[in-house]
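Problem 12. The chain below contains 193 residues. Write out its predicted structure in token notation.
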Amino acid sequence: MKKKSIFLQLVLAATLLFSTVTYAAEVNSTRDITVGSSGQMEMIGTIEPTIFSVTMPTFVPFNISNSLSTQNKVISPRINVKNNSNVPVQIDVAYTYVNLDKMQNVQWSNTGTVDANEIAIGFKQETAEGEMPTDLAQARWLHANDYQDMNVMILDSNQEGAMYVVGTLGKDVSESATFNVTPTFVVSKTSEL
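Solution.
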């Protein structure tokens, strides 16, 4: 009997040694927790998943020429943009890669104002449906090989919009050479409308 009693005491001691104490906090109670003391508080958050979906072309060819009689020297197709999201979005240019290697002695202008050997390209929202802009008022100019936070368009949920490539060039810039401009667009939720 003594062996049985010692064995039960050892089992009970081992059970107590490896047991875990658990308890539940009151989730619906309110109480003050004094600074310097400890206590538990339940925090409940809500996640609202939002999927952004914007449709726009990935390649836009354009021609640029000093022979155009308008202030805007670029001919580009209409860039249709559609917000397929259920929330308003803004479309920004975060970075623009520019390669002028095939254009000798030509420099980029970030402002839209050009000297004889400079070129500038940007975007302008459509003001009259289906009409290429002739002036450069309110054009948003791309900065060559630099980060920028430039808004080009704001669209309400499920709204469509359009913009055009616009630009200008100095009188000494060759019209027969080619160059590449690759803007990086970023879409984000906006409250501006």
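Discussion. The chain has one helix and eleven strands. Students who got a different answer should revisit the alignment rule from Section 12.3.
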